[in-house]
Design goal:
heterodimer; A: mainly alpha; MetI-like fold; 2 domains; about 0% strand; globular; B: mainly alpha
Chain lengths: ~280, ~290
């Protein structure tokens, strides 16, 4: 471990290269989003949000995240509890399965649901005869979103809970606490910030997911278009101010997520660091 | 070691005893969830391409338009990951080693591609690099066309992949023992020698780890690419887009074939990268 020093001489070249690269690849697109959104002035910008289709897209995105994120949070807690507090065979395999969505193209994460529930899918005709529709519908969008964001909470909790071990829980149980009490009063307080952190990242991805959702949504305006899909529709219609106006909301969400994340890291550096340095190495 | 011996002597059982409660329900829920959300859907991807036998699969994936798309997706992804390997190392180095004005802001900004929705990045990049855009307008007089060419795809993939390398390398660089480096300097190494011969080998596993994550992300990337790609068949059409096109034609077996080919190829590349990493790690131990 060593401290950072003031750059001197040729070190400035490295710093300049790094800063310029970050500015060109990361900052420039962000600036472009806001510049394009306000290209025709503030009134055109705000007019974009009075479109009922835009409002429907915003509502749909919030609804999808409201279902997908809590489910993945509960899954993350259960999976982390099993993986970090017990020793069993096949643990490495389970961890690998949890990571699969990270290495799958979002388009494939949408495709698999169409293969199951689409018109020509395995269960499609049968569900159709029952009048149940999953693809081109809310359910399909939620399923695709859940698949894409499945690892986020689990991956944030596992390294931290691994590092914390089982001593505290064992002590609580030995002293007569019940399972639920132990979880709520011993485990949860230890992991609450990592849980929040995972939920935050999961939510950002859930609201911003494009590829997987675009495959299952069918792009029905005002009905199955989420915010990112509505951005695409407007952009392809050459309504650039409208597209970038909706995009500013998503960019704002990303910025708020980053700000909260940075604050969490700064405020709870100790609690998160244990898990995070391991996480980065494991990733 | 002792516990390993004990485990060997005992009748093998699939889980160690524990006084902690909740194993059965938590395990049950976890398995049910990953089965419903990951395993069953994935099995559909594996089973579906064979509707018309091996020939059906092969004629789909050996179609020139598909091979061109796969070559484009894997080629640009590897190139982008390579660029990110170099620039990610530079950025991580600057962030860890030097205290410059705006360092914390730069550090926080690295994660932006993780948080920024891909479609947003996609339309922004397409606008910047279009012939009339901020950068595109500068490149056009030079005769360089960026948007709607493979070069545009590369730029989009570079933009989404950078944080993977930076965040892999940063903690290792942070924990790197200053004494080792100081020893090399005391023994007469020049700073660049110390950087390339002492620090770089120690960073290699993290660099390669970041490289493979950036590659995996880039191969399947869709949202940030399709707006800037131009999507011309045989030239700037990425493999994930072909899946979408085949699904639009209700060609499920064809879409699944392309998806499976992508998955198998990218796992093959990732395994190859892992083997290199393992070899490097072994050399480090010696």
């Amino acid at each position: 471990m060593r401290g950072a020093v003031r750059p001197r001489g040729s070190a400035w070249l490295i710093v300049a290269a790094a800063v310029l690269w970050l500015a060109a690849t990361i900052l420039l697109p962000l600036v472009a989003v806001f510049a394009e959104a306000f290209r025709k002035g503030a009134s055109a910008y705000f007019a974009a949000f009075t479109d009922p289709d835009a409002l429907a897209a915003i509502t749909l995105t919030l609804k999808v995240a409201a279902v997908a994120v809590p489910l993945n949070a509960v899954f993350g807690l259960a999976a982390a509890w099993v993986v970090t507090k017990f020793e069993f065979r096949g643990k490495a395999l389970l961890l690998a399965v949890i990571d699969i969505p990270f290495s799958m193209s979002p388009v494939i994460s949408g495709l698999v649901w169409v293969l199951l529930f689409g018109a020509n899918g395995w269960f499609g005709p049968w569900l159709d005869s029952l009048g149940i529709r999953i693809i081109f519908n809310f359910t399909g969008i939620v399923l695709a979103t859940i698949l894409v964001t499945l690892p986020f909470v689990a991956r944030e909790l596992i390294p931290l809970m691994q590092a914390q071990g089982t001593d505290e829980e064992c002590a609580a149980i030995t002293l007569g606490a019940g399972g639920v009490t132990t979880f709520l009063r011993v485990t949860l307080p230890n992991i609450i910030w990592a849980l929040l952190y995972g939920v935050l990242l999961c939510n950002a991805r859930a609201m911003g997911e494009f590829g997987a959702v675009s495959v299952v949504s069918g792009h029905i305006r005002g009905l199955t278009d989420t915010m990112p899909l509505h951005v695409e529709v407007l952009y392809n219609d050459y309504d650039f101010v409208g597209a970038f106006a909706i995009a500013t909301l998503l960019a704002g969400l990303a910025l708020v997520t980053l700000a909260l994340k940075t604050w969490l890291e700064w405020r709870f550096a100790g609690a998160l660091a244990q898990g995070n340095s391991r996480l980065a190495r494991n990733r | 070691m002792l516990s390993a011996l004990n485990a060997g002597a005992r009748r093998p059982r699939w889980r160690e005893p524990s006084i902690l409660p909740g194993f059965a329900p938590a395990m049950g829920f976890t398995l049910l969830y990953v089965s419903l959300i990951v395993l069953i859907p994935l099995s559909a991807l594996i089973a579906r391409p064979w509707e018309h036998g091996w020939n059906g699969f092969w004629s789909t994936v050996s179609d020139p338009r598909v091979t061109a798309a796969l070559r484009l997706s894997f080629g640009t992804a590897l190139l982008a990951a390579l660029l990110n390997l170099v620039m990610g190392a530079v950025v991580a180095w600057a962030l860890v080693r030097y205290d410059f004005p705006g360092r914390r802001l730069a550090d926080a900004a690295v994660d932006l591609p993780f948080a920024l929705p891909t479609a947003v990045a996609g339309i922004a990049l397409a606008t910047i690099y279009a012939p009339s855009g901020w950068v595109g307008a500068l490149a056009t007089p030079l005769g360089v066309k960026i948007a709607y060419t493979p070069l545009g795809i590369l730029i989009a993939l570079v933009a989404v992949g950078l944080p993977f390398v930076v965040r892999s390398v940063q903690p290792v660089l942070q924990d790197f023992d200053a004494e080792v480096e100081e020893a090399s300097l005391t023994l007469g190494a020049r700073p660049w020698q110390s950087a390339f011969k002492v620090i770089l080998p120690a960073l290699a596993p993290a660099l390669i780890g970041g490289f493979s994550l950036a590659f995996a992300r880039a191969v399947g990337e869709y949202g940030s690419v399709i707006f800037i790609a131009g999507n011309m068949p045989m030239r700037s059409e990425i493999a994930p887009l072909l899946i979408v096109i085949k699904l639009d034609q209700f060609n499920y077996a064809g879409a699944a074939s392309v998806g499976l080919a992508m998955l198998v190829l990218s796992f093959a590349v990732l395994i190859a990268i892992n083997l290199v990493q393992l070899r490097l790690a072994r050399r480090g131990l010696r």
